[in-house]
């Protein structure tokens, strides 16, 4: 579907670009002009071997991969190597067909094939659609390029996937399911923090003993995926020190409620396999209150945690499952 652009594509790309610019201007967005990007730019890309099209019988999208962009030199990128994506667009006549997603997945795979750590891109601050698209693919803001009035974004290619992962989120949103998927995909052990904390018949582990359990697991497992919040348990610092990636399933409360209802239905009258004997799945008022209040009481602390560790860890925040599934597909 994605292939190198050729000189035979130039007229088609020029017409696509003209439609794209008109659509942008109709929305009040002046990111591109009537003179950019046009045929001369695409021809230059083709001659340099950096232009690509999405072609399923009809050309529906385009992007260029630039080895070096001088405008990016002053940005504090996290990756030591990367490729810059420029002139990426889909034909307004063929939008919402999965073209943009397919192109970005191809970009990720191409960057991996080149052995590069990051994908770099920029967009206009008013381009809400593009910014939402970049957020979907877990790009993060790295700075502002004053000379061209653009926000700079970066996404790791995960050519070397993280293998020391902490997962945060409300109950019922799928933290343990994600842990198991990552464990299988990356061939690393996983642990559900609830299984370390709760003893038989929902008896809690004393604080110091819980800390010892967590520290013991981390000491024995140089790679891991660990799900659970426990922000005030005395274990968060040791977990952060051991981890190289943080994932937050930042889903709406209703998704959490649906999840715990389904979980209780699945395990009705019995305990999950990763829980102690007698920890029968149930929804009592205390647990329900925790779930209902999570996004108000605990979510801000997790967001702050991700923000403060952006430079030391790979951080990922998912607000809906399709974006998470796309991320898993890209590993």
Fold and architecture overview:
This protein is α/β, with parallel strands linked by helices and 331 residues long. The chain folds into two domains: 155 residues, Aminopeptidase (3-Layer(aba) Sandwich), CATH 3.40.630; 167 residues, P-loop containing nucleotide triphosphate hydrolases (Rossmann fold, 3-Layer(aba) Sandwich), CATH 3.40.50.300. It is 41% helix and 21% strand. A hairpin with a 4-residue loop joins strand 6 and strand 7. The longest helix has 17 residues. 31% of the residues are buried.
- Count of domain modules: 2
CATH architecture tag of the largest domain: 3-Layer(aba) Sandwich
What class, by secondary structure content? alpha/beta
Question: Describe the biggest sheet?
Answer: 7 strands, mixed
What low-confidence regions span 5 or more consecutive residues with pLDDT below 50?
Answer: none
* Percent strand: 15-25%
Fraction of residues in helix: 40-55%
CATH superfamily of the largest domain: P-loop containing nucleotide triphosphate hydrolases
Return the CATH class of the largest domain. Answer: Alpha Beta
- Spell out the helices and strands N to C: EHHEEEHEHEEEHEHEEHEHEHHHEH
- Number of separate strands: 14
Q: What gyration radius follows from the Cα positions, in whole Å?
A: 23 Å
Mean pLDDT: 94
Strand order of the largest sheet: 1-2-3-4-5-7-6
């Amino acid at each position: 579907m994605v292939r190198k652009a050729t000189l035979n594509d130039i007229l088609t790309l020029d017409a696509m670009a003209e439609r794209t610019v008109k659509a942008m201007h109709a929305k009040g967005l002046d990111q591109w002009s009537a003179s950019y990007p046009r045929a001369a730019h695409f021809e230059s890309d083709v001659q340099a071997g950096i232009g690509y099209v999405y072609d399923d019988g009809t050309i529906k999208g385009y992007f260029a991969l630039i080895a070096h962009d001088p405008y990016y030199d002053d940005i504090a990128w996290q990756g030591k190597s990367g490729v810059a994506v420029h002139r990426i667009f889909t034909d307004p006549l063929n939008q919402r067909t999965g073209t943009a997603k397919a192109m970005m997945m191809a970009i990720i795979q191409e960057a991996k094939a080149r052995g590069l750590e990051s994908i770099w891109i920029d967009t206009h601050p008013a381009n809400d659609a593009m910014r939402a698209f970049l957020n979907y693919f877990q790009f993060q803001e790295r700075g502002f390029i004053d000379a061209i009035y653009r926000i700079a974004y970066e996404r790791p290619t995960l050519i070397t996937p993280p293998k020391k992962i902490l997962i945060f989120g409300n109950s019922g949103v799928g933290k343990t399911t994600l842990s198991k998927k990552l464990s299988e995909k990356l061939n690393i052990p996983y642990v559900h923090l609830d299984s370390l904390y709760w003893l038989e018949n929902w008896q809690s582990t004393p604080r110091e003993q819980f800390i010892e359990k967590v520290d013991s697991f981390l000491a024995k497992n140089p790679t891991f995926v660990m799900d659970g919040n426990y922000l005030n348990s005395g274990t968060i610092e040791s977990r952060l020190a051991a981890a190289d990636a943080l994932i937050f399933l930042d889903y709406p409360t209703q998704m959490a409620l649906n999840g715990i209802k389904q979980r209780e239905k699945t395990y009705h009258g019995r305990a999950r396999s990763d829980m102690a004997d007698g920890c029968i799945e149930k929804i009592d008022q205390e647990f329900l209150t925790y779930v209902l209040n999570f996004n108000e009481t605990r979510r801000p602390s997790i967001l702050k945690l991700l923000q403060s560790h952006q430079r030391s860890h790979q951080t990922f925040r998912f607000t809906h499952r399709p974006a998470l599934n796309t991320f898993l597909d890209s590993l």
